[in-house]
Design brief:
296 residues, 59% helix, elongated
Length: 296
Amino acid sequence: MPDLNTLAPQQLFKQWRSGDAASGQAMAQRFSDWYYAVTAARLGDQHGRTPLQRACTRFQQGIVGVTNPADLSDWAHGILSEELRMAGGRIPGGDFANQLTGGKLPSEILARARDAMPPAQVRLLAHAYDARYPFERVTKEAEVLGGMPFAVLDARYALKRWLKNEAGVRFAECPDKPNLDYAPLPLYEAGRMGNANEENGFEKWMLQNMPLCKDIAEFGVFALSLRNGAFATPVEPEAPKEQPKAARTPEPEPAPTPEFEVEAPRSYLPYIAVGVVILLIFTVVAAAVVFGLFHG
């Protein structure tokens, strides 16, 4: 009997419909893992938990109504897409610790990787996972490292290897050479695929490739941290600019005190002297008159 893990979801579905309970369990696990990978990439563990649970419940309740294996992928993806839309679609980034990070924030671990990895790869990942950075400039930066999108994929796996070998992150999917079929992977994680149809097509393709699902799921917290700016070059604060001193309005020089010709005080001494002389004469005359009266 073939390994159920190697069978396509449609084959598992057919065998389950034929009464194979083991195939049914394997199919349910396959879709659950797929749902988890997509929600982890778009929303992270914390924000994606509720839509993940709701999608799995709806899958279990509705799978009995699906009869055509060809409709399985579109039907299941429609459930997940609806739950993701109700949850906001995709968060711009985040910094969430989990078991793989040992309780540490991904940004703390990525800061060490940023200092250890080749600067060109660090810069390329920082710009590729920043949706605000012009994609044309990302493409130019990738040209010197092997071209777009391979250079970004290669830098992503170089980061995964560093995290596994130097930081002890227990990744299960960490190849020495990246699979070229996975070239759109970093663009999907960064939310930079061309349009919604490309993104949906990539997610449906993930269902057919469980190693890819596992790769995306386990790297989810680091992808979100990269989108949050973990590899961005720290900006050193600018020295405060010296404020130009306001030009002082020159104070007007005090006007010179106007010179007035001050008339010298007039001397009244001559008039006083004359008055004294007259008074003496009057006194003498009066004394003579009085003397004459008493002796006449």
